[in-house]
Amino acid sequence: MTSDRTEPFAWTDGIEARWRGPASEAYRAKHRAAAEDAVRIRRAMQLLAKAIRLSKDGFSAQELEILEDFRRLQSRADIQAEADALSTPDTTPGPPPGPRSRIADL
């Protein structure tokens, strides 16, 4: 599941590292949101897989308690930190601004 999650983002990292301007900022915001969604989906799938395994013969009181523990852990998850790990930070400086012409203000 980990490779499925990171592979779609791997090819975009090269583009993202060199792209500048308003479009790149909008793209980075969308990419970040997709990374956060990937983290949430992964956590939900892990919880569902565990619940399915536990429910094979019905739930005992202990198993219901374990599921409640999962819910508490999920609510305390640091989605932002995990999305940071999936996102490429914009660490390279942009090109210095060139000469500016007043014609561009028209």
TrEMBL record:
<protein>
    <submittedName>
        <fullName>Uncharacterized protein</fullName>
    </submittedName>
</protein>
<feature type="region of interest" description="Disordered">
    <location>
        <begin position="78"/>
        <end position="106"/>
    </location>
</feature>
<dbReference type="InterPro" id="IPR036689">
    <property type="entry name" value="ESAT-6-like_sf"/>
</dbReference>
